[in-house]
Sequence to fold (420 residues):
Amino acid sequence: MPFPQYIQMPDNALKAACDSLAIFGFKPKMIGNEYHLSIPNGKFIVNSIAFTHETRRTLDYTGFTLFNAAGDREESEIVRILAKSAAPFHLIHRKSNNFSFWFSNVDVNGKWEVKPNLIKSDIGYDTLTDELKEYTEDIKPQHIIDVKQRRSEFNHQKFKESGPFQLSLWAINVTEDLLVKQFGRTVNELRGYRDSAIPDQEITDIAIQLLGAIILANTGVLKGDNIPPKEISLAQLIRAVQDKFQKYFDIRLFEKWHDATELAYQTLTKLHYSGFAPEMLTKLYREAYPDKKKRRETGRYDTPLHLTRRIWDNIPVEFLPPENRSFADMTCGWGSFLIAGYERLSRMIDIEECSLNRFITGNDIDPFTSRLAGLGLLISTSEDSWDIDSHDAEKWMKSKWSDRRPNIIVGNPPFGGNRK
Fold:
């Protein structure tokens, strides 16, 4: 079945929806318009996505989709597609100048598939806010974040009856292989470029940095006059990341291997990476280094983000003075402990005004893995000021922390491999 056709939403309808969402905490800068998503069997465009955070643009932070429906397509079928954005709530607009309000979750008791739930239909522009007020506590941005990150649950019976909220995991599962395998093709193309004229570490550096830049562009983080609303060239992309994120991106590497970078760019941009999630980073490593022997030697044990969040929620960080909440992960892998630690600290009101980059430090002996950790923090926070190194863990601790010590040590050391 073809994807729903994209038709621009009437200005007055979009204004009515955005004005209503603003009442519940969705600020204008949290709305992303004309949002492209790549999924198996094709791409589709959502008129707008309302994110639950002003700067974070991963699947954990999608709240509402706004879609202008045309024709006789069943709205439940449209919601099944919109749910691949991992947004739990959907406002579908019709030519009859009204909205319907939908909720989506995954049916965990039967088949692992989306279960659309119609909450309200035939909602006029002028009554939309009043109709949504019944669900105020559940549709506030922070509550949606807490539910998606498993710190809370939806309260209204119409949402609770669908069971535990698992939509984010399902959305990742749907798109993960598609996006990750395209990255693997890119790495293989670079390795075949002019009979592998490029050193292997530079190959993976080009691929992962280029992927990071494309994710930032596709998710709307790289907004500006130099970013056209449709397609952007490699040169425009490089200028944009150079202006905004100078620490993570090594522009000299792109310039050194310009033709190879252009080739990689053309391969990666066959898809839209707005649906990329940090949890996919570990599979990028497997695509770049499919040799299981290498992975065994490094003793890789990836810790899922939902588990590191649970661990951090049980660390009594609040009992430490704000200035003493620095933490380190000396074998950070792709950075799940770092991301969860950032989320934990960012929720603490007594350090809201502090820059969290001085509290968070990571290291991994594998250079590509440390690049993955940097990318994980970059796309999770829209910042690149993070301190991520790539050294022997024991030597790193002695040199990095020679005159001070982190007050919190987190991590999942590689007990099955080189313990350094």
